[in-house]
Amino acid sequence: MHLPVFLDDPRRLLSSSAAASASARTLARLHALLIVSSSATHTLISSLAAAYARAGDLAAAESTLTATAASSSIAAWNAIIAAHSRRGSPASALRVFRALPPAARPDSTTFTLALSACARLGDLRGGESVRDRAFDAGYKDDVFVCSSLLHLYARWGAMGDAVKVFDRMPRRDRVTWSTMVAGFVSAGQPLDAIQMYRRMREDGVKGDEVVMIGVIQACTAARNVRMGASVHGHLLRHGMRMDVVTATSLVDMYAKNGLLDVACRVFGLMVHRNDVSWSAMISGFAQNGQSDEALRLFRNMQASGIQPDSGALVSALLACSNIGFLKLGRSVHGFIVRRFDFNCILGTAAIDMYSKCGSLASAQMLFNMISDRDLILWNAMIACCGAHGRGQDALTLFQEMNETGMRPDHATFASLLSALSHSGLVEEGKLWFGCMVNHFKITPAEKHYVCLVDLLARSGLVEEASDLLTSMKAEPTVAIWVALLSGCLNNKKLELGESIADNILELQPDDVGVLALVSNLYAATKKWDKVRQVRKLMKDSGSKKMPGCSSIEIRGTRHAFLMEDQSHPQREEIVSKVAKLDLEMRKMGYIPRTEFVYHDLEEEVKEQQLSYHSEKLAIAFGLLNTGPGTRLVIIKNLRVCGDCHDAIKYISKIADREIVVRDAKRFHHFKDGVCSCRDYW
DNA sequence: CTAGGGTTAG
Predict the structure, then answer these.
(1) Number of alpha carbons in the 13 Å side-chain half-sphere of residue A153
(2) Per-residue confidence (pLDDT) for residue A11, from 0 to 100
(3) What count of other Cβ atoms lies within 10 Å of the Cβ of residue A161?
(4) Which runs of consecutive H residues, i.e. helices, occur in A270-390?
(5) What is the pLDDT of residue A15?
(6) Which of A162, A205, A204 has its CA nearest to residue A182?
(7) Which residue numbers delimit the DYW domain (predicted)?
(8) A209 touches strand B (CB under 7 A)
(9) What residues contact A145, with CB distance under 8 A and at least 6 apart?
(10) CB A243 within 7 Å, strand B
């Protein structure tokens, strides 16, 4: 037993580094001995309490101080408050702060800790009362106190107040500056963040990693890769520590700006990578449409022994959504259920995955299981119903959402209006558009106008839609004109349609689908020279666009089909299946719509080209490889053309199959010769 | 004994 030795000089023990790492148990024995031997002085008790706090026994620390003369020792209390903070319980930190005995006079450290706790809790009013006490106690010009006050405001979007504090600070250090930079970034003002950094440099303050991370994020948000790269160079030249966080923000900066190869190189050069670094890289691929690569990385991450965090899982789910990989999506969902609490972010990503993989039922089931729903989760589920052609369900959900007191935002209405439009619920669409503007005071954006115009025009109310355009403050965009034009074409309002087509051409669209619509309209009015002119534009933009690709998942394996790709082992069988279907379709009245072939070819060759459209190949493959009655889910990267849309209706009848096609815009549910979406051009 | 930092959903 060596404790008595300590008793010779407990003072030395408590100030030595041994105490810093002493266990709470050792400290307790020492404590007891101090009391028994009546040698517990004020200073000793205070140091002991601080040592308890460092060792993590906060209850012991507090009870050591309470009811002794040492309870006036602010240093000991600070140690306790700091320990609560480190442990991630700001509420406990504040509780201790508020219950300080009157004899313990808070100092700069105490106020700083309390303000930081308020910032973490988002307790602005509590923070302001701490501020008042700090200022009264004479810490008005204290850099630590002011910087944490600044952070409180900046972190919660009150940049105006943050600037006020900042402006009257007599002294600023790099923490002050970096707080301002990060504040502007999270307030969505990246240019002001960069401006702050410039001011800092003019003031002669050198940036450290933390400031630079803020600047990198600002470059990411401002889409300024050039400056981002120069910051990167600056870091390297000045030999700044490339820690995980710095490197990760660089990876993110390059990836979000489309420089995936550079992002990869930075990622590859990292000495230590943690879950967040992997997440940044995976999301970079997923958001740049390289979903297969994102999923490969996701597997690599697990293989290298890093447990995916929620960021990586969300990105993996996003990648599964993009390519419609239901089996993998399900397994990621299963992984989450086993290891995580299902929060709203993960829930939203999973619901979106099920939705985009064609499984409305799974999305609904998951939604019903989540009881604590936030705005984005509701929006995702409403969008899901809409995408699957369930306008009425979307409306019911929307009303349910309102009943819970959740306030809809612009995205909610975009999803709702789009759902109503796809289901042809005209009266409801008009009603809720008006309600959005008048009751919820949301200024309609382009997407809202597109939905409403589409809804009106499709339903034959072309004039009403046209009036809506004139009532708009801004000039109509291509998307809005297109919605109106397709209504004109479907409802044979050719005269109005022609002037709209002219308007669209003036805006120089390069979208082949848009041009096809315009060309179809000119064909309907027999303006053949204009048809030729538009078809030339289509040829130019058609050669630039990516090839159409469709995929189908059969028993957990994905099969992708491109028009040009001859390499599929079952290619011949597939092509002859399509030909057989084609024959039957024609007997039932199908007429190939060769206007959807954009190359100058003989009519016969054009018809053949139509047979090679990727969605037809994928469907034929699906029919060959699944049993009768199995539902087929096709994921297509571009929009389904009018010809395929007609053809799949017939195929669903002939093969007696439910066929779901997800194109770049939405879902088409084909069954018994009809599609859930209304007229299609 | 004290303040500031990265990824992820509609």
Answers:
(1) 20
(2) 58
(3) 17
(4) 275-287, 291-303, 310-323, 326-339, 344-356, 360-369, 375-387
(5) 55
(6) A162
(7) 589-681
(8) yes
(9) A108, A111, A112, A115, A131, A134, A139
(10) yes
β-pairing, A659-662 vs A549-554, is: unpaired
Predicted TM-score (pTM) of the model is: 0.89
Q: Are A659 and A652 in contact (CB under 8 A)?
A: yes
Q: Distances from the Cα of A625 to the Cαs of A585, A648, A658, A671, in angstroms?
A: 21, 18, 15, 19
- Which residue blocks in A87-241 are alpha helix, DSSP H? 90-98, 108-121, 124-136, 143-155, 159-167, 174-186, 190-202, 209-221, 225-237
Would you call A557 helix, strand, or coil by DSSP? strand
DSSP string, A460-471: T-HHHHHHHHHH
Collapsing DSSP states into helix, strand and coil, what is residue A500? helix
What pLDDT, on the 0 to 100 scale, is given for residue A338?
93
Q: For A124 and B6, how far is CA from C1' in angstroms? A: 25
Residues of chain A predicted below pLDDT 50? 1-5, 17
pLDDT at A33: 64
CA to C1' distance (Å), from A615 to B2: 63
Q: Which of residues 123-182 of A touch strand B (CB under 7 A)?
A: 143-144, 147-148, 151, 155, 173-179, 182
Spatial CA neighbour of A103 closest among A80, A133, A77, A139: A77
What's the CA–C1' distance between A490 and B1, in Å?
74
Sign of the torsion angle spanned by Cα atoms A155, A159, A165, A167:
positive
Q: Measure, in angstroms, how far nucleotide B4 C1' is from residue A174 CA.
A: 8
Q: Is A108 exposed, middle or buried (0-12, 13-18, 19+ CB in 10 A)?
A: middle
Report the C-alpha gap between A412 and A423 in whole angstroms.
Answer: 17
A208 touches strand B (CB under 7 A): yes
Would you state the pLDDT for residue A342? 86
Phi, psi values for residue A122, rounded to 5°: 75, 25
Q: Please, which positions of strand B sit below 7 A from a protein CB? A: 1-10
CB A324 within 8 A of CB A549: no
Task: Give nearest nucleotide to A376 (CA–C1').
Answer: B10
pLDDT of residue A669: 93
A362 touches strand B (CB under 7 A): no
Residues 320-339, chain A: which have Cβ under 7 A from strand B?
Answer: none
* pLDDT for position A61: 75
A248 touches strand B (CB under 7 A): yes
A34 and A10 Cβ atoms separated by less than 8 Å: yes
Nucleotide whose C1' lies closest to the alpha carbon of residue A273: B6
